[in-house]
Amino acid sequence: MIVCRLDHVSRHYATETIFDDLSCQVELGDRIGLVGPNGAGKTTMLRLMAGTDQPDTGRVIFQPSVQVAYLRQFRDLPPGKTLGQEARQAMKHLEDWYAEMVEAGERMGSAPTPEERKRAAQVYDNRQELLRQHGGYDFDHRIEEVLLGLGFTRDQFDRDVATLSGGQQSRVLLAQLLLQSPDLMLLDEPTNHLDIATTQWLEEYLVRQQIAVVVVSHDRMFLDNTVNKIFELQAGKLSVYPGNYSQYAELRAERQKVAERQATKQEEEIARLEEFVRKNKAGQLSKQAKSREKMIERLSGNDVERIRDLDAPAIFFGEAARSGDIVVQTKDLSKGFSEILFEKANIEIERGQRVGIIGPNGAGKTTLLRILLGEEPPTSGSAKLGHNVQVGYLRQEIDDLNPEENCLEAVRPSWKPTEPEQTFRGLLARFGIGADLCENRIRTLSGGQRTRVALARLCSHDVNLLVLDEPTNHLDLWAVQALEDALKDYDGTVIVVSHDRSFLNGVCERLYVVDNKQVRLIPGNYARYVELKEAEEAALAAKNAESNKPKSAVAAPKRKRKFPYRKAADIEADIATHEAEIELLVQSLQDPAIYTDGRKLASVTKQQEELKSKLEQLMAHWEEAMELNS
Fold first, then answer.
1. CA 328, CA 306: separation in Å to the nearest integer?
2. Given CA atoms 57, 63, 64, 70 in this order, what sign does their dihedral have?
3. How far, in Å, CA of 20 to CA of 233, rounded?
4. pLDDT tens per residue across span 85-108
5. Which among 13, 45, 422, 458 could disulfide-bond with 392, CB atoms 3.0 to 4.6 Å apart, if both were Cys?
6. Residue 463 DSSP symbol
């Protein structure tokens, strides 16, 4: 079913054309990654689909009764409601459907005529199907699942949302959207305020939904794990590719090669024909020459598809001055406020290393950075920088740029007043800030443009230690890739806090994991961390399984367990019990008397849905037990 269709849509701002004559459609079950350079119009396209903006020409067409929900990048939540109340408010339409289903069931039992009974039955079936498609009846369970999945704790459910941090409020908005369970979900950078574990939970949640999703994200692994189609928006045109982001990148590259070969072949053929015409235009073969001229006209009028290179800044940081061999060193470092964040951390970072810092939100990653740089005192222990270390710090909020300065003023250090302006124009150009933006004030720039200016400023300050706190948050996919490549080529030292797993894999050669009040060294990138974590979990599962078996048995799990260890025979007994209970409910629904009590009918239907869901879980658990138990 087509949920939304853009029909020959155009959108302009002042004299700038965002896109022109754009057509596409979104079908139920589509999970679409909307990609393109900063400024290509991705957010504008989302706003058109959300109905918060209107096209200049063309139409945006929705299937009747389709519900659309749009996650903007940020807005403040007013005080007066708790986290739990805000979450439940998002499900009001589901609770209304449930009440209407109950009422229709009661009317089915008391209807005086077959026609009225039929109308009530139609309403009942419709609301039952809507509830099935949009998450079922267990509202409290769904609220808890989503809030816990997004990193909230149960003791925060009664907290006023106005007292939450900006990042937490962004997660509240995301929770509301997920609980609303619309037919079309529009997400603009949903992972910006999520840690890695929460991002992984969101991936799994979105894949399970039977709805349409359009998401703008710079997180390549998130797109790989969630989407089944890519919309590429560039230079006002939309191209559609099947598959996830990695498949799109391969298909696009291959399509570009084919187009280039076709264009080269056409150009060579035109050149060959032109040469024939030049030699024979006035000779005995003049008729053939005229025929070749017509062939040239036809070929010239047949435009071969050309796939443009996507705009990516040519980022590079230049040569770094030599520092001491040890750049950062801590000894028994501890930090706490009302509670301990981490304790007895011993960190040593050598010159030229590229180090990532990861961990859950609130674990203390940014606090650790500030302590390493001397901006925050430790509770105990020590932290120091090495000899001749010059720090360039990109803060997550990018709040140290003067909003009233223009880009050129922002990147020019105070100690370089006589440096030619062209030097800084060239520097900004390296980071994707062209001549048309150089004299714009910082406050007029987008988040991505501010990040690029802030990165360029680090270069102008002649640093040899780059400390980057979530540097990819506002960059498009190609700027992220360019930054990744630049950091790999940088001969200074890099410390980066990031939740972007692809970026961590590409940049970092060692990680420090801040979690459970510890700072743990991982020798390798994020993929290596996952390998070690899975190996530890498998070993623990094997140990637990071993303790529940006879000593003669040997535990040999083939894969990571999703369910706790149980005997297959015990699970089979539960399966039989659930199947019997479902059969009893099916039989009870055949009794006409049940339709006289709408609430009882709804209760039986709800029990049936819940038992079916539990039965599916039991079957999966049994299959795992048959494979892994021995």
1. 49
2. negative
3. 11
4. 998 888 888 888 888 888 888 888
5. 458
6. -
Task: Please compute, for residue 387, the number of CA atoms within 13 A of its CA located in the half-sphere on the CB side.
Answer: 3
b/e 224-258 (16+ beta carbons within 10 angstroms → b): bbbbebbbbbbeeebbebebbbebbbeebeeeeee
d(CA 485, CA 315): 8
Nearest 10 degrees: Cα torsion 565, 568, 569, 575: 100
421: helix, strand or coil: helix
Record the pTM: 0.78
DSSP string, 140-194: HHHHHHHHHHTT--GGGTTSBGGGS-HHHHHHHHHHHHHHH--SEEEEESTTTT-
Quick: pLDDT tens for 170-229.
Answer: 899 999 999 988 899 999 999 988 999 999 999 999 998 889 999 999 999 999 999 999
Residues ≥6 apart with Cβ < 8 Å to 148: 154
Please state, in angstroms and rounded to a whole number, the distance separating the CA atoms of residues 154 and 24.
42
- CA atoms of 227 and 250, how far apart (whole Å): 15
Joined together, the tokens standing for residue 29 give: 């079950």
Helix/strand/coil for 374:
coil
CA nearest to 185, candidates 168, 173, 194 = 173
Q: What are phi and psi of 326, to 5 degrees?
A: -100, 120
Strand-pairing partners, residue 193, are none
70 close to 50: Cβ distance less than 8 angstroms: yes
**What mean pLDDT is predicted for residues 5-24?**
90
DSSP 245-305: HHHHHHHHHHHHHHHHHHHHHHHHHHHHHHHHHHHHTTSTTHHHHHHHHHHHHHHHHSPPP
Q: What is the pLDDT of residue 387?
A: 96
Under 8 Å between Cβ of 178 and 146: yes
d(CA 76, CA 341): 28
Percent of the chain whose predicted confidence (pLDDT) is above 90 = 47
Per-residue b/e over 591-630, b at no fewer than 16 CB within 10 Å? eeebbebbebbbebbbbbbebeeebeebeebbebbeebbe
Residue 553 has a pLDDT of 47
Token pair belonging to 476: 């498009």
Q: Which band of pLDDT confidence, cut at 50, 70 and 90, is reported for residue 13?
A: confident
Pairing state of beta strands 184-188 and 380-385? unpaired
Percentage of residues in the chain having pLDDT higher than 70: 95
CA atoms within 13 A on the CB side of 233: 25
Of 610, 502, 452, the closest CA to residue 37 belongs to 452
Lowest mean pLDDT among 69-78, 377-386, 429-438: 69-78
Return the minimum-mean-pLDDT range out of 97-106, 119-128, 130-139.
Answer: 130-139
Categorize the per-residue pLDDT at 304 as very low, low, confident or very high, splitting at 50, 70 and 90.
Answer: low
Contact 466, 430 (CB under 8 A): no
